[in-house]
Amino acid sequence: MISAPSTVADVMTHAVVAVGRDADFREIADTLQRWRVSAVPVLTGDGRVVGVVSEADLLTARDGDGERADALTAGRMMSVPAVTVHPGSPINEAARAMAHGHLKRLPVVDDEDYLVGIVSRGDLLKVYLDDDRELADRVRFELVATLGPAAVVNTDVRSENGRITLSGDLPDALSAPVLARLVRSVPGVVGVELRLAAAA
C-alpha cells in the first residue's frame, strides 16, 4: 500500500542554510541571494534556533536605523520568537502556521530546538500534486486502516484532480459527515463527494 506523506518529516528539506547571531547585514543579504531563499534561521553556537531573519527584516532595519551595514547583525534584526514546527507535526499544522504568520518557510526543530530541517510552502504543496491513482489508493488504505476491510468492501474510491468520490454502500455505523471528514484529512485530498447508500 502507498504510505501517505502526512508529517513535516515526510516533505521537509534536511539541508538548511542558516546564520549565527553575529552575521552582519551584508553576510545575510549575500546568503539570501546566493541560496535564493527569502529567509534564514538564526542559530546559537550549538545549533538551536533563536530567530529568523528575512528579506523584509533586512529592508526594515536598513530603512529604520540608518546604521552602517556591518553594525546590523542577525541578532538585532531577527524576528523572535521563531515560528517553528517539529518533524512529527502534521502537514496541515505547518500549513496553518505559515498562513497565520504569512510565512514562506518554517525551521523544523527537535524537542530541544536544534535545527533539523526546513519546510516551505512548495514542500507542502507537493502533497497536492500526487497522481490520482496514488491518492485513491491512499484514501482506500486509510479507510481500511480505520474502519476495517469488511466495512468498505462495497465502497468504491475514485480520485480526479484531488477530488475524491466515494460510491456504493455507506459503511455500517458511520455517518456521512464523519466519513467525509475522515477522507478530507488524508493529505492531498482537496474535495469529497459522497454517493453512498446505507447498506441493506
Architecture overview:
The protein is built from 8 helices and 8 strands. The model has no long low-confidence stretch (mean pLDDT about 85). The chain is of the alpha/beta class. The protein has a 3-stranded mixed β-sheet.
Proportion of beta-strand residues: 15-25%
Radius of gyration: 22 Å
- What is the string of SSEs from the N terminus onward? HEHEEHHHEEHHEEHE
- The rough form would be described as elongated
Q: What are the segments in which pLDDT stays under 50 over at least 5 consecutive residues? A: none
The main sheet orders its strands as 1-2-3
Please give the count of helices: 8
Overall strand count: 8
Helix content: 25-40%
Short description:
With 200 residues, the chain is of the alpha/beta class.
Task: Give a quick set of tags describing it.
8 strands, 3-stranded mixed beta sheet, 200 residues, single chain, elongated, alpha/beta, 36% helix
Task: Produce the secondary structure layout.
Layout: H1 8-11, E1 19-20, H2 25-35, E2 39-43, E3 49-54, H3 55-65, H4 74-77, H5 91-101, E4 105-109, E5 115-120, H6 121-125, H7 132-147, E6 155-160, E7 163-170, H8 176-184, E8 191-198
Parallel strand pairs: 1-2, 7-8
Antiparallel strand pairs: 2-3, 4-5, 6-7
